Amino acid sequence: MINKKTAREIIYLILAFLGASNILLNTYKYGIGLTDDSVNYIYSGIHLLQMKGFYNYDGSIFINWPPLYSLIISIISGIGFDIYTALIIFNAIIFGLTVYLLGKLSEIIFTSSIIKILYVTTLTFSFQMLFIFTRAWSETIFILLIIIIILTLLKNPEQNVIYLILFLSLCVLTRYLGISLVISYYIYFAFIKTGTSKPLKTYSSKTLLISAIAIIPTCLWFIRNRLMTNNITNISFNSTESLFSNINRLLEYTSALFIPESIDAQIRILLLVVLGGFTMWFFIKSKVYSDNKLITLISIIYIISLLIISNIFKFDNISYRFLIPVYFILLALIIRTLEVLILKLNNKITKVLLSIFLALTIIFPIEKGIKHTFINYNDGIEGFNSIEWKESETIEYIESYDKNSKIYSNSPAGIYVNTGLSTYRISNYPHERLKGTLRVIFKKSLPEIDNVPDLLNTISQNDSIIYLKDSYIIITKN
Description:
Layout: H1 4-27, H2 36-49, H3 68-77, H4 83-109, H5 113-125, H6 127-133, H7 139-154, H8 161-174, H9 179-192, H10 200-214, H11 216-229, E1 236-237, H12 243-258, H13 265-285, H14 288-291, H15 293-312, E2 313-314, H16 320-323, H17 327-344, H18 348-379, H19 387-390, H20 393-400, E3 407-409, H21 412-419, E4 424-425, E5 438-442, E6 464-468, E7 471-475
Parallel strand pairs: 3-4, 3-5
Antiparallel strand pairs: 1-2, 5-7, 6-7
Helix pairs in contact: 1-4, 1-5, 1-18, 2-3, 4-5, 4-7, 5-18, 7-8, 8-10, 9-10, 9-15, 12-13, 17-18
């Protein structure tokens, strides 16, 4: 007779298989989702395999991001598969492993068997996880490492110090926001988990040493960047966003994790504040936090770190993408709070209302995930591998044009992915006019096009201009 825990273990394995299969289904027709950073990660990995070092697809030095994801891609590309196919298989395997480990985490967080299974099922088919794992993004590894670190910290961390240092190091080498995990670890073990058996000083010294060792590889990466480029990263100071703007974006995209985006953003934020306030109140009153101090701390430190980085550096704006690494934690805290209330309260009407709230919390991400699976299958993942790029008139025109001509555009990565041609950024267009040079200005109707410069006032009488559905092209004649 199979006991309940073994039965759940089997269910987690089945969900892991279904999750991996879903990634394959979403990417089957058009391939893995690609963005600007995806292309740089991939080709720096390929260049590394060719013993050329970390270089972007355009030949510039790779310093924008930490190196681990490119290093993994380098290993994958050495297997012999087409790199894009290999990345699809890799993402499917990583997601399957992520789902299985989420099952392990649910065994620690929740009480009810049904809630444990529902939590893992929700994440397996959620749009939020699909959004990350159908793309060539370092967040795929980052999320997996966060889960592994949490499980390591919750299960005899003192006996797994070497593994803990390794995972923390890898986390920071995957995303610089991984430093929030190092900070969370230090605060948790130096100040929160301190017991009477060991004084604070002992815990603090040990955790500080482990934290320091964990960031050494990233410090070495910064030194390498500094020696090669005079910068530790291309991210500059002087953020263009105010603190208020960043907080507003944080609330807007956090609300989008739990509330349909069809609802106006300001209404979503209001609902998030009201419902989130009630949930937080019950979360504290029911002492849910006392059993979940670690994951609560990680989510708080991560979000604060994101706000600080966005407010200091000229960083990518806070978006949906940056919040998903802690989505599984936020979802767990909400569901755990509802679980405790449903089990404790005796009022039937209140239980029904809480059950409805729980059902909506679970249904929304799954419904959105299923909807986008159909979209991804038919139209491709939004990015350079989507149907809009594959059927682009501009790409067709560029492929038929003289291959020896110099091309400048506002999306060299998009051209590279779809034609294999190395082109130049429009901002690097020289002052001298070279015959046959093309300036391609893609419109915002194409995915991944944010900046559309207006060059129409720079055209001379000897230039010709071609208007296409998704761009306009300026051809320099002399």
